[in-house]
Design goal:
InterPro entries: Mur-like_cat_sf (IPR036565), Mur_ligase_C (IPR004101), Mur_ligase_C_dom_sf (IPR036615), Mur_ligase_cen (IPR013221), MurD (IPR005762)
EC number: 6.3.2.9
Distance between the termini: 54 Å
Radius of gyration: 23 Å
CATH architecture of the largest domain: 3-Layer(aba) Sandwich
Shape: globular
Family: Belongs to the MurCDEF family.
Keywords: ATP-binding, Cell cycle, Cell division, Cell shape, Cell wall biogenesis/degradation, Cytoplasm, Ligase, Nucleotide-binding, Peptidoglycan synthesis
Subcellular location: Cytoplasm
CATH topology of the largest domain: UDP-N-acetylmuramoyl-L-alanine:D-glutamate ligase
Oligomer: single chain
Length: about 450
């Protein structure tokens, strides 16, 4: 970690705790800052705040008093999920106080080079793929950022021999200033989080912030399946390295079922360890980053062949009596489920779908679900999902929860078929988050395994 003096004796407000806020507060205190933490959760129910207070950090809990901002803070570091129309954030901006996320802190102290990954879909899988390729090739890769390891916490122990493989959300990227990765990757850009950003243009602008400080010595890897990416390619000083499944490009591409990098054949698409056309895109993006980092074709192939996926993202759970189970609970929108289905034979697939009702219909999904053996439907959105199934000519059965849906799907399946949880909906009508939903699917599979062992 770089021993910087930028924050010595400067007053900094950390707004919102969770893991990233706690990490930021500790880091800032270690750098000599005068830190105040403000979190909405009451102090007696807030173990993180209690721990920070014991370490000598000032905490204000239970509310967000606007007058706190009269204390002449020089920087606010906010939790990425807190919106910019939040009264505390809006007031800070009015007062000219810079508002950052902890990603900026990570960059300022990091001795390690940074590979930054963002996008609408595929971020976590691609981030994990890249890290596994790096580590397989003997390069020390440290996962950080939106993937569950606060960037400012990981950067503390990273050395110049490491590479920070950093997954970043649009929320995090709105709060950067000097942040400067050596390689930046955007997997794809689709309309999402519009409730936070206001419109798609603002969302794209947040993602594109990632390359603001990059120079002609850096690289931006872009998905040339999208015309938007080709437009963005004209707006950066960095060297653009494209990837595509639809055309030969001066980067990574799919041709004749083979993955190439600049005319070098790397591997067959069918050899990737996880199914789906979206994972071909993820693999191509990974290949581009790996080649830019000096990793050999053989190492790349070996790592991608053995790649087993990410928990809750087309995760292979196991097999019971010839029926294979896949957990894609992280598919919380239609596009993600469309991509998941692209890797399966519909006639042999039972899809479990449904969840939070956001008021949208599922007509876009109709072409992708045609020919499915069965859909098991649950949650608030079940009536809308069933309407799409009816248009596609697919039979449906109702389930009360994920455990019930898993049991029903298995009872209807035969050897050689697949049970795929890919809900196309958020989980919040029945579950705290998609992880809890996916964990119930895994637990249900394990129970079925015990009950049906031969």
């Amino acid at each position: 970690m770089k021993q910087i003096t930028d924050f010595k004796n400067k007053k900094v407000l950390v707004l919102g705790l969770a893991r990233s806020g706690e990490a930021a507060a500790r880091l800032l205190a270690s750098l000599g800052a005068i830190v105040t933490v403000n979190d909405g959760k009451p102090f007696n129910e807030n173990p993180s705040a209690q721990a920070l207070l014991e370490e000598g950090i000032k905490v204000v809990c239970g509310s967000h008093p606007i007058e706190l901002l009269d204390e002449n803070f020089e920087v606010m570091v906010k939790n990425p999920g807190i919106r910019y129309d939040n009264p505390m954030v809006a007031r800070a901006l009015e007062k000219g106080i810079p508002v950052w996320t902890e990603v900026e802190l990570a960059y300022l102290i990091s001795e390690a080079q940074i590979v930054a990954i963002t996008g609408s879909n595929g971020k976590t899988t691609t981030t994990t793929m890249i890290a596994e390729v790096f580590n397989h090739g003997g390069k020390s890769a440290l996962l950080s950022g939106n993937i569950g390891f606060p960037a400012s916490e990981v950067a503390v122990t990273a050395t110049a021999k490491d590479t920070l493989i950093m997954e970043l959300s649009s929320f995090q990227l709105m709060g950067i200033n000097n942040f400067h990765p050596h390689i930046a990757l955007i997997t794809n850009l689709m309309p999402t989080h519009i409730d936070y950003h206001g419109d798609f243009d603002a969302y794209v602008e947040a993602k594109w912030n990632m390359q603001n400080r990059m120079t002609e010595e850096d690289f931006v890897v872009l998905n040339f399946n999208q015309d938007l990416a080709k437009e963005l390619a004209q707006k950066t000083q960095a060297i653009v390295v494209p990837f595509s499944t639809t055309e030969k490009v001066d980067g990574a591409y799919l041709y004749d079922e083979t993955l190439y990098y600049k005319n070098e054949a790397i591997m067959l698409a069918a050899e990737i360890g996880v199914p789906g056309s979206h994972n071909v895109e993820n693999a191509l993006a990974t290949i581009a980053v790996a080649k830019l980092s000096g990793i050999s074709n053989q190492v790349i192939k070996e790592a991608l062949v053995s790649f087993g996926g990410v928990k809750h993202r087309l995760q292979y759970v196991g097999e019971i009596q010839g029926v294979k189970f896949y957990n894609d609970s992280k598919s919380t929108n239609i596009l993600a489920t469309q991509k998941a289905l692209s890797g399966f034979d519909n006639a042999k697939t039972i899809l479990i779908a449904g969840g939070l009702d956001r008021g949208n219909e599922f007509d876009e999904l109709v072409p992708d679900i045609e020919g499915l053996k069965l859909m098991v439907v649950l949650g608030e959105s079940a009536p809308r999902v069933k309407r799409a199934a009816q248009k596609a000519g697919v039979r449906t059965l109702d389930a009360k929860d994920i455990a019930d849906a898993t049991r029903i799907a298995f009872e209807q399946a035969q050897a050689g078929e697949f049970v795929l949880l890919s809900p196309a909906n958020a989980s919040w009508d029945m579950y705290k988050n998609f992880e809890v939903r996916g964990d119930e699917f895994i637990a249900s599979f394990e129970e079925l395994t015990l009950n049906n062992s031969r």
